[in-house]
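Still learning. Any example?
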Amino acid sequence: MSVRELVVLGTASQVPTRHRNHNGYLLRWDGQGILFDPGEGTQRQMLRAGVAAHDLDRICVTHFHGDHSLGLAGVIQRINLDQVPHPVTAHYPASGQHFFERLRYATAYRETVKLTEAPVADDGPLAVTDTYTLDARRLSHPVESYGYRLTEPDGRRILPEKLAAHGIEGPDVGRIQREGVLDGVTLDDVSEVRRGQRFVFVMDTRLCEGVHALAEGADMLVIESTFLDEDVRLATDHGHLTAGQAAAVARDAGVRHLVLTHFSQRYSDPSEFERQARAAGFDGELSIAQDLMRVPVPKR
């Protein structure tokens, strides 16, 4: 059975707290593992969450502030220590190549795994696999930052009532799916398009065109909400979003499940983020991220 879920490893912004680790998010997607923004302590959080280095196929870094990238050194060395048997690809802003190299070779270790460096320089597709296309869009932050989007290819949903109306049953169901037509009946006549799932990851940014473009039609949007709405000026000045702003993006984009995360240590009551998100008019599924929680990607 395929598993598509978000494993939250850390949810703090800038500094860890007693209850929140630095950032870290693993997306499990049909046997693939994509690690987003491994902040300091990610390797230990992986252990606590039951995530192994062998689970990682791709690493995506939004930008090179420490709370989103200082864990790279440990994660990369663990991948090599455990001799992960498959290649791993790393995406990160091209302007931060020197930071990536420093983190990759922060200390001495033996390289045993092929780590492919695939820096991001422009908006657009980064990778195409059998189960998803990975795209990036530029965000608005004091340092170059990108958001990421996974899009599953559209599929087909067979409609039993349409099959029955055309007298198609048994082995002929498979045949029309393979060949597209059977005795003058087309696949379009007995099925409908099943839109592929869409997962979006947006970290440090002000409101900008890239945020809206990434979020459009997402089944799950993982997005920073560093500040509460009363601190909107701080958010804008430092290149961040408030809970209400993030929720309004999700509302306008038709997001099905919104995951708010990356909370400033100045706030002690996480329920206030939920209250402000609902006040902004978002009425879909809503999760206020906590370390080590698991959130299934909504099914289509």
Summary: The chain has a mean pLDDT of 96. The two ends are 15 Å apart (CA to CA). The chain is about 25% helix and 25% strand. The longest strand covers residues 4-10.
